[in-house]
Specification:
single chain, Porin, twelve-stranded antiparallel β-sheet, 1 helix, disordered C terminus
């Protein structure tokens, strides 16, 4: 499923399957993607520590970005590795399979194709959290 995220000064947007979901700002930098899935899933990017936090009914996730090597994180018993390319592309691997792949489009939107069924429960928040990270070379 394709998920797009655009981070702006005053408004953030998430688009999945052609439907735009409003993003609501909360206290301490938390953002919630409003939809009909139920539950309150929210995301926050901590620029000081370079971490992405996701909280929801399925659990807590903290992604610690590593600048000199691939970033890894665990979600629902699976280990994922985030690899970046110099071309501005991001690939998330589950073992050696591609779980998600994304790039920064010329429109300023991050466009991701999420393949892993395990990541689907947090795909909107994950893409929004990755889009909030300001580095142009991304994870390098």
């Amino acid at each position: 499923m394709a998920v797009e995220a655009k981070v702006g000064w005053f408004r953030h947007r998430v688009i999945a399957e052609g439907v735009e979901y409003p993003v609501v700002s909360g206290p301490r930098g938390w953002l919630s993607v409003v939809d009909s899935r139920g539950g309150a899933t929210r995301v926050r990017y901590d620029g000081l520590r370079d971490r992405i936090h996701i909280e929801g009914p399925d659990g807590l996730l903290e992604i610690r970005i590593r600048s000199l090597r691939d970033t890894t994180f665990q979600w629902r018993g699976h280990v994922y590795r985030i690899a970046s390319k110099l071309s501005g592309r991001i690939i998330i691997y589950e073992d050696e399979r591609v779980a998600a792949e994304g790039k920064l489009a010329s429109s300023g939107r991050w466009v991701f194709e999420v393949v892993s069924p395990t990541l689907r429960s947090i795909e909107r928040e994950l893409v929004l959290g990755l889009a909030m990270r300001p580095s142009p070379m991304y994870l390098t």
